[in-house]
Amino acid sequence: MTLQARKPVESGGTGGHWLAVRPRLILASAFMLFLELALIRWTGSNIVHLSYFTNFVLLGSFLGIGLGFLRVGRTTAQPYYSPVVLFGLVMVVLAFPVTVDRDTDGVLYWTSLSTVGPPAWISLPIVFCAAALVLMGPAELVGRCFPELPRLEAYRYDLIGSLTGIAVFTGLSFLSAPPVFWGILAAAAYAVLLVPRPRAAYIGLVAVPSLAVVGLLLAETLTAGALWSPYYKVTHRQFEQLGVPVTDISVNGIPHQQAVPAHARLQWEAQYGLPYERAAARPDDVLIIGAGSGTDVSIALSKGARHVDAVEIDPKLRELGGSTHPDKPYDDPRVTTHVTDGRAFLEQTDRSYDLILFALPDSLTLVSGASSLRLESYLFTEEAMRAARERLKPGGAFSMYNYYRESWLVDRLATTAQRAFGHAPCVDVVSTTGQQAVITAGATPEAQRCGAPWAGAAAGTPPPADDDRPFLYLKDRTIPSLYLVTLGLILAVSLLAVRVVAGPYRRMRPYADLFLLGVAFLLLETKSVTGFALLFGTTWVVNAIVFAGVLVAVLAAVEVTRRFRTPPLPVMYGVLFAGLLLAWLVPNAWLLSLPVPVRAVAAVIVAFLPIFAANVVFAKRFADTADATTSFGANLLGAMVGGCLEYLALVIGYQGLLVVAGVLYLGAFLLLPRRALA
């Protein structure tokens, strides 16, 4: 570690701020991460495109954070632009919300019936650029603290602040707090962090926009009548249809579910009764995954079920089912509710069932931090159906139904069931319009009663999805052109923005290895998020724990580097490559076979060993850089590029991301300056 890395750079102290540098750095870092999470969550609830582009705002945030660090030293002006742009973004999103139709190709599937609002080519660039500008402000405030502290101490407080931001946002999610609380916290952070000089500019550019944001979000909270679950903005309306009470439930502006009495649902749509007709066994014990508003539970009870395990991932949908469903199925003593991920429940339960039902488990959103993983993606893999088969009693049956929209999708799922159960399932296409279908497979051929034999999959049907590539709706092994064009534009805009905001690229040239470290680390993080989602569920709690765990591993690497003499960089790179090899060799199937406590320990070791080693490498290299803010900014811009490369998983699978990360880490090692090698 150089003398410059060990001693604070004397660059003006606190810069005239009333708050000391360490608490200011923690607060600014916490605000930066909290604001990023809030923008991802809130914009996606109003612009439906972002329900399937959750990392779109993440990429804009990484760009803005990187630019904020690169701006340090180029200007002394306060980043008053950040609250102004945030106000503009909130106003535009509320004035022009977006819903889309169901005809999108590739991995994007929608269920709303009409297009309302600006097209994607207008709304997505606005959100991306606005997110970058909003996050650039807090990042600039964080970056200005770095020269006032030793490198690794500054990085340490930055990580502590980031963990605090995650904790605050997770707490608000647990409390189902509406967005007005996010706005209040953002306004308070701006008020504390931005220096109120000159006073007129502070009032006009900070106080007024911040209070306006709070006012707009308060108006949304009071008028929308929405429930804010950890996944969606949930709205509902009650009415009568043919004399029957009905509750329509929408999430993020998309029609999603209906709470309808069992007798009416069976009369209106035959698919709901077919699983009980196709299963040979009496449905005494039933497992329903995707219980939602309770209609499927009510039907199971009407069919004579003696016990129903109702699994629903979203607590607010379960809450609405309990309060609005006319049959009150969740009040029935025969029903046990489980608010958790369906695949995780299948892997962890020790109960057996006469009927396992996947009841339209269509999440309409992605796992935050993973580019293409939906909440229900791991339910539709061959491994998931094998897990369902193992939970059946002798003579039991598995069934699933939905509006599959494409005939090849029905054939793909039927083929998956055939492979998992070892024989052809019953396939009932109830309606060719929208491919409304029911697929039922008995534990044995005798456990199912088909109306007619399945003719088999049509030519060109894609193979079953698996746990490595759980992309049910992606027909071809490719990246859809929509993504390629969008990501290309993002990178082009980012290159231009870096040149305009941060100056010549040669400033970052000495830190090319740190740039590659950022690219590779984002891929490692994605692999960790998706891996833990498979092993423990795609719930928001698991997601928050994994992100916090990544930051804890990074913080541990920093503390070890600060306090102890660590091996030289070549040795640490060797440990990193060994960790990547271990993660490559350990199969998910083996981890899933372990008891949950043992699985947790093994998963942490496998996932976090390379993350820890990678961050010891980064900490040692970062401590020895000549320019803290430029080198850190280069690393953050690398993370943005890594967010774009996440989409390679659509082609090579999530396990393949480890190979890409390994190649990038090898490139970073080859770009190490000679003095760092020494």
From TrEMBL:
Gene3D superfamilies xrefs: Vaccinia Virus protein VP39
Top-level taxon of origin: Bacteria
Keywords: Membrane, Polyamine biosynthesis, Transmembrane, Transmembrane helix
Keyword flag Protease: no
Signal peptide range in chain numbering: none
Pfam families in the cross-refs: Spermine_synth
Database matches in InterPro entries: SAM-dependent_MTases_sf
Annotated TM spans: 25-44, 50-73, 80-100, 120-142, 154-174, 180-196, 203-228, 482-502, 514-534, 540-558, 570-592, 598-618, 630-648, 654-672
Name assigned to this protein: Spermidine synthase
